[in-house]
């Protein structure tokens, strides 16, 4: 591959990652069914951008508003900039695994765009937990935790998509959604490079508290991945979103615990 093709491909993949994970306006990209699987390596980088923007917003609001109000506005910003992508995944996953007793029932519910009682409860608890935990962190450490949390929570897609296949059969792949475009398609190199990058950013941001945040993220990723595998034999796009949300909460929780 020539140097120009490499640069062009890298640029397209990074734009695809931003386009998929955020609502930030991006230049038009021609549809490529393989672009998302290549873009996964940039997910932690997009997390760094999102976390840094949230940290900057927090710093701007802190001198003027109570901590709880500031935390609420920061979470509202995060929900807006990502278009509720991960919240939608969490709600659908809660409905699917909470309401389905068999693999087939779970997968049917996961495809249903309507939110049920399990999904509503999960969303309420997730939003509340993030606001309360963010407001509970030491004030000077909140920007660092925002950056670390959003790098690590988007890192979770890498190991899940490396180890787990799509939960849907080949016959269902046409309607399987975005998750099937990355499940079991992440390369070992992407996993290693993405992990090193995420660990480096987290260590730089949190210093001595980085180990707890990384350990919590790995634990959430492992346990949720094991649960998905046992219940439905793999993952869906909603599962990626649910683990993302749980990992973000876990990182904030470690910060509040160690404060």
TrEMBL record:
Record-linked HAMAP family: CobS (MF_00719)
Free-text function comment from the UniProt entry: Joins adenosylcobinamide-GDP and alpha-ribazole to generate adenosylcobalamin (Ado-cobalamin). Also synthesizes adenosylcobalamin 5'-phosphate from adenosylcobinamide-GDP and alpha-ribazole 5'-phosphate.
Catalytic activity, EC: 2.7.8.26
Bilayer topology annotation: Multi-pass membrane protein
Location relative to the cell: Cell membrane
Enzyme class label: transferase
InterPro entries per record: CobS
UniProt entry keywords in alphabetical sequence: Cell membrane, Cobalamin biosynthesis, Magnesium, Membrane, Transferase, Transmembrane, Transmembrane helix
Cellular component, GO annotation: plasma membrane
GO function term, MF aspect, one: cobalamin 5'-phosphate synthase activity
Biological or metabolic pathway of the protein: Cofactor biosynthesis; adenosylcobalamin biosynthesis; adenosylcobalamin from cob(II)yrinate a,c-diamide: step 7/7
Catalyzed reaction equations: alpha-ribazole 5'-phosphate + adenosylcob(III)inamide-GDP = adenosylcob(III)alamin 5'-phosphate + GMP + H(+); alpha-ribazole + adenosylcob(III)inamide-GDP = adenosylcob(III)alamin + GMP + H(+)
Source organism of this protein record: Edaphobacter modestus
Needed cofactors: Mg(2+)
Transmembrane segments: 42-61, 67-85, 145-165, 185-206, 212-228
Family per similarity comment: Belongs to the CobS family.
Protein name: Adenosylcobinamide-GDP ribazoletransferase
Lineage, highest ranks first: Bacteria, Pseudomonadati, Acidobacteriota, Terriglobia, Terriglobales
NCBIfam families according to UniProt: cobS (TIGR00317)
One of the GO biological process terms: cobalamin biosynthetic process
């Amino acid at each position: 591959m020539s140097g120009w093709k490499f640069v062009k491909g890298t640029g397209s993949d990074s734009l695809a990652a931003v386009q998929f994970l955020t609502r930030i306006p991006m230049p038009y990209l021609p549809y490529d069914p393989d672009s998302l699987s290549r873009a996964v390596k940039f997910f932690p980088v997009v997390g760094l951008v999102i976390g840094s923007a949230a940290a900057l917003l927090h710093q701007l609001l802190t001198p003027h508003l109570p901590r709880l109000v500031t935390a609420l506005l920061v979470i509202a910003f995060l929900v807006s900039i990502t278009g509720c992508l991960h919240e939608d995944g969490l709600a659908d996953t809660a409905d699917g695994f909470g309401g389905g007793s068999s693999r087939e029932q779970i997968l049917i519910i996961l495809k249903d765009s309507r939110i049920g009682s399990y999904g509503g409860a999960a969303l309420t608890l997730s939003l509340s937990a993030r606001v309360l935990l963010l407001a509970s962190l030491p004030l000077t450490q909140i920007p660092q935790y925002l950056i670390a949390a959003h790098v690590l929570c988007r890192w979770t897609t890498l190991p899940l998509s490396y180890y787990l296949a799509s939960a849907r059969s080949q016959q269902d792949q046409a309607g399987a959604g975005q998750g099937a475009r990355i499940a079991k398609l992440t390369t070992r190199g992407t996993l290693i490079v993405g992990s090193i990058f995420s660990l480096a950013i987290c260590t730089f941001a949190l210093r001595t508290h980085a180990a707890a945040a990384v350990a919590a993220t790995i634990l959430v990723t492992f346990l949720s991945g094991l649960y998905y595998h046992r219940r439905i034999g793999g993952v869906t796009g909603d599962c990626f979103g649910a683990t993302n949300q749980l990992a973000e909460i876990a990182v904030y929780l470690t910060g509040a615990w160690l404060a």
